Amino acid sequence: MKLHIGGEQVKEGWKILNIQKKDGVDFIGDISDLSQFDDDSIEEIYASHVFEHVIQKKIKNTLIGIHRVIKENGKFYVSVPDMNILCKMFLEPKIPPKVKTQVLRMMFGGQVDDFDFHYFGWDYTLLESYLLGCGFKKVEKVKSFSLFDDTSDYAPFSNIPISLNVIAYK
What is the average pLDDT value for the chain, to the nearest integer? Predict the structure, then answer.
């Protein structure tokens, strides 16, 4: 099985886990609790702009849980807002207030519902450290996953992508 966490786009070969019941969702649940899945039962997990919604004290256990359910040699595709890029954008003196507000929403969540808050910010060094510390063998930064049409490829300002896209290998 391949699992798309937080997704809405139905795609052949993928099952969807979402915290909210929506059309096309196969499993209701939270990325922080994958207890409904057996050890080594999932080939690939995809989570685009979901992991920043995990509260800080649950990050390590969440990654351990993801590692637990992924099969040997499986992949974890994770995309998060890239704090290095967003901070540079925010600090740019010529950036208009409207754009600064959009950048802040990417940092802290859009806050349009009870689930749309960001609790942690990531850059590559920090994310790599956590992933390796939770048992992943190799971590690779990529420009794009080219798997789903989602925020992982979002480039709203001068075609500058705002996402950090990483593949972690078990």
Answer: 95
Q: What is the pTM of this model?
A: 0.94
Domain that holds residue 42: 2-82+118-169
Distance CA 47, CA 19 (A): 12
How much is the average pLDDT of 61-89? 97
CA–CA–CA angle 132, 130, 57 (5° rounding): 145
Largest CA distance in the chain: 51
16 in any annotated domain = yes
Domain count, the chain: 1
Q: Is residue 95 part of a domain?
A: no
Identify whether 77 is part of a domain: yes
Gap between the Cα atoms of 152 and 117, Å rounded: 17
pLDDT 10s digits, 135-160: 999 999 999 999 999 999 998 877 88
Q: What angle do CA 4, 74, 10 make, to 5 degrees?
A: 20
Residue 58 lies in a domain: yes
CB-side exposure of 135: number of CA atoms within 13 Å? 18
